[in-house]
């Protein structure tokens, strides 16, 4: 009986800790959403409230009137989707080879992949800018996409290596015993098991590119090519004073695509982990 009570109290503590963590994560988004619907009078109040007393859509209308948000969102969407797709297409076969051929070289390569993520952006921006300038890719979405692919590829590769190693070799060996070719085994057995990992990796690459600011600020010069994070900075005045209402409204809209994409594919991430283990 004592052990049961201890187990229940421990589980309750875990749930409370999880609840506190979720509140901690959700607080910025909820405050941003609240700010986006507040009129100027409430934004300047010394006693802010969670729920707007007089909610309004004027901030959203003003945001669209002041800045080309739709065009910037389109640029961000193209860059993020293309970068995620290219990164996954390149990383998936590389991850399979590295995971199935575990040599000292592949181990060292995996370690270098992880270490490379610690390099700050400012360390590579000057040589990167010079390379893209020589290739005539400055101020182009294609150049920005290539930068996003290169920057997200190491971590995408590291993620997929872990997913490939989680797939039992015995499944591939069993398929080979049943007469399946190497290509058929990869398509019918391994690929379905890797699908959740591929989707999760693509989501990571997409969100990284969608939210990226520094490279887009340096490499894109004309307003027609700028992405959404860069355009959001235009809501800051000449003296650094933010136009808080429209800025919050635009930032709130900028978070929606990531949330929608995650909501659509979350079943794909959590379901079907053993779909490829069933022989037909």
Could you write a compact summary of the structure shown?
Helix content is 75%, strand content 0%.
Q: How would you explain this protein's 3D organization?
A:
The chain is mostly helical and 280 residues long. Helices cover 75% and strands 0% of the residues. The chain has 12 helices and no strands. The chain has helices spanning 2-36, 40-43, 58-66, 69-100, 104-116, 121-134, 141-166, 169-177, 182-211, 214-219, 228-232, 244-270. Helix 3 packs across helix 12, helix 5 (104-116) packs across helix 7 (141-166) and helix 8 (169-177) packs antiparallel against helix 9 (182-211). The longest helix is centred in the first third of the chain and has 35 residues, at 2-36. The relative contact order is 0.14.
Order of helices and strands: HHHHHHHHHHHH
Assign a percent range to the helix content. over 70%
Terminus-to-terminus distance: 48 Å
The main β sheet shows up as: none
Number of strands: 0
Summing up helix and strand content along with how strands pair, one would put the structural category as: mainly alpha
Give the quaternary arrangement of the chains. Answer: single chain
Number of helices: 12
User: What is the mean predicted local confidence, pLDDT?
Assistant: 81
Global geometry: globular
Low-confidence sequence ranges: 271-280
Beta-strand percentage range: under 5%
Based on CA atoms alone, the radius of gyration comes out at 24 Å
């Amino acid at each position: 009986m004592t052990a049961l009570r201890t187990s229940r109290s421990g589980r309750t503590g875990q749930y409370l800790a999880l609840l506190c963590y979720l509140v901690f994560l959700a607080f910025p988004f909820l405050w941003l959403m609240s700010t986006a619907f507040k009129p100027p009078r409430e934004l300047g109040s010394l006693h802010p409230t969670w729920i707007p007393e007089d909610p309004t859509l004027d901030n959203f209308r003003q945001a669209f009137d002041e800045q080309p948000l739709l065009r910037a969102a389109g640029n961000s969407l193209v860059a993020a989707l293309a970068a995620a797709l290219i990164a996954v297409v390149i990383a998936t076969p590389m991850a399979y080879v590295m995971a199935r051929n575990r040599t000292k070289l592949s181990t060292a390569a995996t370690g270098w992949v992880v270490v490379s993520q610690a390099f700050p952006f400012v360390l590579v921006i000057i040589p990167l800018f010079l390379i893209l300038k020589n290739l005539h890719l400055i101020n182009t979405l294609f150049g920005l996409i290539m930068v996003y692919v290169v920057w997200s590829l190491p971590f995408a590769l590291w993620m997929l290596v872990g997913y490939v190693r989680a797939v039992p070799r015995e499944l591939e060996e069993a398929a080979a015993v049943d007469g399946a070719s190497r290509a058929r085994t990869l398509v019918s057995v391994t690929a379905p098991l890797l699908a959740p990992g591929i989707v999760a990796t693509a989501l990571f690459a997409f969100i990284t590119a969608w939210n990226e600011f520094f490279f887009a600020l340096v490499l894109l010069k004309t307003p027609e090519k700028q992405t959404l994070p860069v355009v959001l900075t235009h809501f800051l005045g000449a003296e650094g004073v933010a136009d808080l209402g429209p800025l919050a409204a635009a930032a709130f809209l900028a978070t929606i695509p990531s949330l929608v994409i995650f909501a659509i594919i979350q079943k794909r991430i959590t379901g079907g982990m053993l779909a490829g283990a069933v022989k037909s």
